[in-house]
Amino acid sequence: MDLPENLHQLVSELGDSLLKALAEDDHCRDLAFQIQAKGYGLMLILEASPMSLGPREFPESEEGDASLPFSEDDLRLMKSFKIKMD
Known about the structure:
This protein is an all-alpha fold. The protein has one domain (5-52, 60-80). It contains four helices and no strands. The protein has helices at residues 5-24, 26-37, 50-53, 72-80. The longest helix is centred in the N-terminal third of the chain and has 20 residues, at 5-24. Residues 61-66 have low confidence and may be disordered.
């Protein structure tokens, strides 16, 4: 899929940031070493699709501030990574 150049750059920067964060996390690094010790390679793949990166409406909260616009798919993905929104 062809992405607009600015979006391609943002996704690329996100991938670089995620790799750096994973490499700096001791637990993630240990897990990666364990997997590699078993003879497997690892690859992080990010996919940007128009459905997930398209413009969104920002609903107004009662205080008038825009609340965070998470779809059910977003919430399911965050839950699978054990990310909690407090």
